[in-house]
Amino acid sequence: MSLLSITDLAAGYGPLEVLHGFDLQVNQGEIVVILGANGAGKTTTMRAISGMIPRRGRIVFDGQDISSSSPDSIVRLGIAQVPQGRGTFADLTVEDNMLAGAYIRRDEVLADVERWFDVFPRLRERRSQRAGSLSGGEQQMLAIARALMSRPRLLLCDEPSLGLAPLITQELFGVLKKLNAEEGLSILLVEQNANLALKVAHRVYLLETGNVVSSGSAAELAADDSIRKAYLGS
Amino acid sequence: MERLLQYVFDGLSLGSIYALLALGLVVVFRGTGHLNFAQGEMAMICTFFTWQFHAWGLPLVVSVLLGMVAGFVLGAGVEVSLIRRVAKKSEAGVFVVSIAMFLGFNSLAGMIWGNLPPEEMPSLFPDEPDDFVRIFGAVWRYEYIGIMIVALLLMGLLFLLFAKTKFGLAMRAVASNPESARLVGIPTGVVLAASWGIAAAMGALSGAMVGGLAGELTSLLMFTPFIYASASATLGGFDSPGGAVIAGLLIGVGEQLAAGYAPGWIGQELRLGVALVTIFVVLLFKPSGLFGSTKVERV
């Protein structure tokens, strides 16, 4: 069943159109990766789904049209985004970052804070430190934990590997994979690192200058020669 | 010694008014990154509202509270109808708009209430000549004590709001990273409008207290306090609420000491110079203020 269904999505900044009308689906329980070079429109796609920029076309989430919804109502419906460059609240404590992530919820959230501290123990050690003082990897974990605090059904991750050491990146992807397998969390991930992406993805979309040029299962794309050459370097 | 105590006490009392106004400037600045030059004039016009409610026969305390409500509506309204729209097009435009509001509110007050002799403004506190206590020889007027308590109380409440409530968390989140605040579902527009509203409501209260001290109301009421408040916000750091309060008190005391101990060359006439010199020196040597943050972030 399709959880997120995008048809003919076009978006951009002012007069500059970045996305030229493509389709994309995320099914319930899937990890879908959008692969593409710098400037392909990956981040713009994420921002369009989250309602941060004006967009045309149809975006349907869980049967509801969100093409013209505001960011806060989209979060309420169950989509959370981990923005590129982490976007933590640098001068708030780790714990306040988590609580801010649960802004849309009215129920008891403290149990959830502890739960994600179990998944990311290093955040627990630093719970009363300002987020700006954390290392890059810790900030990325915080950004993911903060997004999870809204109890999303679809997690959008915008290049979580950016600027991180390979080992940390691997750890992060392990967590994402586990969340998907154990909690059934659907994930839409943007990556430049194709090797990494193909390892966790169920399906992959290849984005080039604002259009989807290829898509399929991770295995299919990994087997495609031209894609191997362009994105895997072998 | 008595003299020193007297100046310090008077300074703390006046300083708490500056602190209140400065806190308003900081709340707005943290939310939207704008310096609201019309903060003082908005406070002035709200004080006229207060006076009007009182003139219609409402008790003074009720009138002040209504004046604060009017201030909240005015502040939020200005943000939604003017600031937000202009900020989308140009940041410098907001600066111009706030100068325009300064002049606009000033003229508006003159137009509505101006052609009468200055309105008499009663004080919220007992202010007969003999309403004071002597503590260690210094005269502590009830009015000054009252001002200090009310201002500090309101500021205390505000700090509780920042630190302990969900709305305060949202305000801090928006101040820290507006983009991420939207991504976690915080309706940033509501938060910003409310910040302007809160700032204007605090201005309304300071206006009522300044008016009570002066005993009369003119459209120039808040001009001087606003300059002291700007100096306080500059000294404390524009993004530091705690800094604004401490700096407000410091400037209040400093101004009294300067005027009191150097009556010959500073005296009553040049007191304002203390504020201007403070702004100048701070901007020259420590532009982020005593408690402001020069943003540090690891990436």
Total strands of chain B: 4
For the record, the count of structural domains of chain A works out to 2
CATH class of chain B: Mainly Alpha
- Specify the oligomeric state: heterodimer
Low-confidence stretches of chain A: none
Supply the helix-strand structural class of chain A: alpha/beta
> Kindly state the mean pLDDT of chain A as a whole number?
91
The overall strand count of chain A is 10
Low-confidence stretches of chain B: none
CATH topology of the largest domain in chain A: Rossmann fold
Largest beta sheet: strand ordering of chain B: 1-4
How much helix is in the residues of chain B?
over 70%
Shape of chain A: globular
How many domain units of chain B? 1
CATH structural fold name of chain B: ABC transporter involved in vitamin B12 uptake, BtuC
Strand arrangement, major sheet of chain A: 6-7-8-3-9-10
Number of helices of chain A: 10
How many distinct helices of chain B? 11
- For the report, how would you describe the main beta sheet of chain B? 2 strands, antiparallel
Q: Layout of helices and strands, plus pairs?
A:
The complex is a heterodimer of chains A (234) and B (299).
Chain A: E1 2-13, E2 16-27, E3 31-36, H1 42-49, E4 55-61, E5 64-65, H2 71-77, E6 79-82, H3 94-101, H4 110-119, H5 121-125, H6 136-148, E7 154-158, H7 166-183, E8 186-191, H8 194-200, E9 203-208, E10 211-217, H9 218-223, H10 225-232
Parallel strand pairs in A: 3-8, 3-9, 6-7, 7-8
Antiparallel strand pairs in A: 1-2, 1-4, 4-5, 9-10
Chain B: H1 2-32, H2 39-55, H3 60-89, H4 91-113, E1 119-120, E2 132-135, E3 138-141, H5 142-164, H6 166-176, H7 178-183, H8 188-214, E4 216-217, H9 223-236, H10 241-261, H11 271-285
Antiparallel strand pairs in B: 1-4, 2-3
